[in-house]
Amino acid sequence: MIKLTGAQVFQRFEAALATLGDEDCDDAQADLRMKNVRNLVKWASEDSAVNLHDVANDVVAN
After folding, report:
1. Domain for residue 51, yes or no?
2. What pTM was estimated for this model as a whole?
3. Which domain holds residue 59?
4. CA 31/CA 23 separation, integer angstroms
5. 55 vs 49: CA distance, rounded Å
6. Is the C-alpha dihedral spanning 34, 50, 52, 61 positive or negative?
7. Per-residue DSSP letters for the chain?
8. How far apart are CA 25 and CA 10, in angstroms?
9. Within a domain: residue 60?
């Protein structure tokens, strides 16, 4: 297992946001989940003080 630097973690968050895109989904529940995950990943990528463990748990929950 490798350890990532903080900069590498935030680069991966940015890549995840690009992959998630901004498209809407025709399924309302799936659309809400996607929006929640996008918001969580965006929040984590913008704030270095965010507890990454909490964000990961929230993403999994959604």
Report:
1. yes
2. 0.67
3. 24-62
4. 9
5. 11
6. negative
7. -----HHHHHHHHHHHHHHH-S---SSHHHHHHHHHHHHHHHHHHH-TTS-HHHHHHHHHH-
8. 26
9. yes
pLDDT, tens only, 7-46? 887 888 888 888 888 888 899 998 998 888 888 888 877 7
Two structure tokens written together for 52: 């990454």
What distance lies between CA 61 and its chain's CA centroid?
12
Average pLDDT over residues 48-62: 69
Q: How many structural domains does the chain have?
A: 1
- How would you label 12-38 residue by residue, b for 16+ Cβ within 10 Å and e otherwise? ebeebbeeeeeeeeeeeeeeeebeebb
Q: Which two tokens stand for residue 37?
A: 């995950």
Domain contains 15 = no
